[in-house]
Amino acid sequence: MSKEGTDAGRLGDWQRLLNQIKLNEGELAHLEVPRGQLESLLSRALEIHQEQAARTAAKQELSKQFRTTVNEGARVATLLRQALKVHYGVEAEKLAEFGVQPFRGGLRKVRTAPEGPVTPGTPTPPPIPTAEAPLDPHE
Prior knowledge:
Radius of gyration: 38 Å
Shape: elongated
Helix content: 40-55%
Largest sheet: none
Distance between the termini: 95 Å
Structural class: mainly alpha
Order of helices and strands: HH
Number of helices: 2
Oligomer: single chain
Number of strands: 0
Strand content: under 5%
């Protein structure tokens, strides 16, 4: 029995066993039937192994094509979403039907003056306009 646990090691072990039996076939005529079975099984196993290798290569190629297609699809989907925003407007609730978040704005916080001593002659920044503090003070 083979000490090697891998399938390739097992197939190599079978090949060596068959070669030795063939060299001694005069003494081992009674093993002709199981020898033939093992030869047939070895041949089939090698065919299957070759098919696996071919399919592995094909799978890798298909995986590469799949990634490329998904990346291209993502770019086209982004383009379509942008086109929907242009068509309906960024604030249109209709965008939600397409899975696109409409722009709903938001309240901004008013920036306060920096804490600490104010040096004379340094202007303080004006507050940022928000919904509560409109831009035009005359409104």
